[in-house]
Amino acid sequence: MSATDWLQTVNRLPTLLELHFPFCQLSNLPFTLPSLNFTSLMVLDLSNNGFNSAIPDWLFNLKRLVYLDLNSNNLYGPLPDKIANLASLENHDFSLNSIEGQLSKKWGKLCNLQSLELSQNKITGSLPGSIGNLSALEQISLSNNKLTGIPKSLGQLSKLTVLDISENMWEGVITETHLANLSSLKELTMDKASPNISLVFDISSDWIPPFKFTYLLIRSSRLDRLDIAYNQLSGRVPNSFRFNKESTAKLTTNRFQGPFPLWSSNVTELYLGDNQFSGPIPPSIGEVMPLLTDLDVSYNSLSGSIPLSIGNITGLMNLVISNNELSDNVDLGTACGKY
Predict the structure, then answer these.
(1) Which residues of the chain have pLDDT under 70?
(2) So what's the pLDDT on residue 242?
(3) Is 134 left (phi over 0), alpha (psi -120 to 50) or beta?
(4) Residue 174 belongs to some domain of the structure
(5) How many domains in the chain?
């Protein structure tokens, strides 16, 4: 079987259930077939072949497909409405291609879909509202596209555990409805390396989310308020967060490690207590974060001296540094109310 006539050979196997041809250097992916004879197929893996072709029309007549992997093939053009024919599909991977255009509302017909992988394509527009119909969905990866709109129906996906929507062009407003029933969500990635994003979060400060994160990445955002307290998040906290004027950051009671995060001067309330931060409190904290009114770093593993520059934070009202490994006491002046 040559790299050019492989499909004609496969088409002579009407009882074939699984086809695994990844990394086979197949060079030909015909758009149509005179007749389709392997309609019993349930698993199709043609990943990493580099076909450089349009998405074939015959693909959408394999109605028994449960697993479909066509990643890394330089497939181009839109995903047609015929995607709805694949109603049995559970796992779908079209990542690392050149798929373009908007996602059809017909995606809402794939009610058995558990994993949706469309990262690193050229998909534009808003996610279809029908995505909320995909009640079995557990993982979504849409990173590195040109998507702009997130529908409120996303919040209906109660089985969703992983959501990666990073490196897109999101705009509009995210409300509590967008997140309302994401009770299984563990990992959220929505970072953007460049600043051309205008997504706004309009969420009440007393709203209690239904999820508990184990991983959260929202790099290069500009925030009014960051409240991820009382979860089980771990890892290092980046210094790249940027805040608007008079902002609050609450990271209390997690498992964050690494050095003290030194953020922008606009932060007024900073709560880092009950984590695993270590090393010194930065000597320049008084110059870098001069607007602090509340600072809680208790129950960590911070060490070294208490910086003299804290005494220059003239608006500081509450300072909590107990239960660390700090080595000395410093007279912080009457500007600091200590408890």
Answers:
(1) 1-4, 193-197, 205, 215-222, 328-339
(2) 79
(3) beta
(4) no
(5) 1
Domain that holds residue 287: 223-339
CB atoms within 10 A of CB 237: 21
CA triple 105-118-15, angle to 5 deg: 85
Q: Residues near 237 by Cβ (< 8 Å), separated by ≥ 6?
A: 251, 256, 258, 261
CA quadruple 125, 201, 297, 213: dihedral, nearest 10: -50
pLDDT at 146: 95
CB 336 within 8 A of CB 308: no
The 10s digit of each residue's pLDDT in 167-209 is 999 999 999 999 999 999 999 888 776 655 677 778 876 788 8
Segment (H or E) for 287: helix 285-288
Judge whether 318 lies within some domain. Answer: yes
Q: Nearest to residue 35, comparing CAs of 15, 57, 54?
A: 57
pLDDT of residue 223: 75
The per-residue DSSP string of 302-331 comes to EEEPPPGGGGG-TT--EEE--SSEE-----
- Report the chain's mean pLDDT, rounded to a whole number: 89
For 160, 184, 212, the CA distances from 46, given in Å and listed in that order, are: 26, 31, 36
Q: Which residues are 247's β-sheet partners? A: 267
What is the pLDDT at residue 183? Answer: 94
CATH number for position 288: 3.80.10.10
> What is the number of other CB atoms lying within 10 angstroms of the CB of residue 338?
11
Query: What is the Cα–Cα distance from 299 to 273, expressed in whole angstroms?
Result: 6
